[in-house]
Amino acid sequence: TMHLMEGELPTSMSGSCGASINGKLYIFGGFDDKGYSNRVLYYFILESLEIKYCCCSFRLIYFGGYGCRKHNELSDCFDVHDAFWEGQIFWGWHNDVHVFDTNTQTWSQPAIRGGEPPQPRAAHTCAVLGNKGYIFGGRVLQTRMNDLHCLNLDTWTWSGRISISGEKPKDRSWHTLTPIGDDRLFLFGGLSSDNVPLSDGWIHNISTNGWKQLTHLPKSRPRLWHTACLGKEGEVMVFGGSKDDLHFMDTGHCSDLLIFQTQPYSLLRLCLDCIGKNAALLKNQIPCLPSKLLQQVLKKITFWAAVNHRQERKAETERQGQLNST
C-alpha cells in the first residue's frame, strides 16, 4: 500500500540506507542529482501505519562506505579513489564506524579497542544479532569479497576475518544479509566478481561458523541492490533492486516481491491461507466465525483474490503475446 507522507520529504535518491527504531524510519545518506548526501531524515510510522516494532535500541551504527575526507584526515583505513586538489578533498572507501544517537540526534565515532577491522569497502551488507554486528562481502577497490567479520557492539572489538568451515558463498557486492532467529543470517543475491547478478541464498549459523546453501531457490530471479527484511513468521521478504548489472544495463528494475520461507508456518497461518484460497467453497461457513478471527480471514480472502487476479492478467497477457507472435 502506498502512503502519502507529509513534512520534509527526501529527494529522489539511490544508495541510501534505512532502519526502523522505536516507531521511526531513519534514512541516511545516498546520492541524488546534487551529489552525495550525509543527511539523516526520519519519519513517524508507528501510529499512522500501525507498524509494530521490537527494537528498543536508540542508536544507528554505520560501517564503511564511500565518502570524502580532507588531506589532513587521510589514514591507512581510507583508500583514495578520486581527489579534488582545490580544497584538498579526497573521495574513496573507508572502514570507519560511526554511531547516530536517536535520542540526542548527535553523531559519535567510538574508539575501536582491538581486533583486526575489515578492509575499507562499500556495497557490503550488515546485520545485527544480539550485541554483535556482522559485515559480509562488498567491494574493496576493484575486488569483490566474501569475507565475514564481527564487531562486538559493547566492547567495540573486531573479530578479524571469521574462519569458515565447509563451503561458502562466492564473492559479491550489492547483496543483503538478514537476521533470522537468534543465531542465523540469511544471505541473498548480489553481483559476483564476474559481474553476474546472483540468485543464490545461504544461511550462516554463527554457532558453527558454517554456511549452508539453499538448493530449492529459483535461479531465474537474480537480484542486486535490493532490500530485504524479516516477516512476522520468519520469512525473508526481498523487494526492488535490479536483475541486471547496472554498470552495463539499466533496464532490469524490479517491482515484484520475493518471499523466502525459513521455517514452518504456524497452524493458524496455514488455516487462514487455506480458507483464503477456497473462500468460494466456504462462503456459507465463513460468516459463522468469531469476529476477531473473521477479520483475519477477510484479509486473507482479499489477499488471495488479488493474487489470483494478477495471475489471471499475467496469463492473459502471455496468451495475447503468443497469438500476436503467430
UniProtKB/TrEMBL annotation:
Source organism of the structure: Nothoprocta ornata
Keywords: Kelch repeat, Repeat
Protein name: KLDC1 protein
Gene3D superfamilies in alphabetical order: Kelch-type beta propeller
A Pfam entry, by short name: Kelch_KLHDC2_KLHL20_DRC7
InterPro entries tied to this protein: Kelch-typ_b-propeller
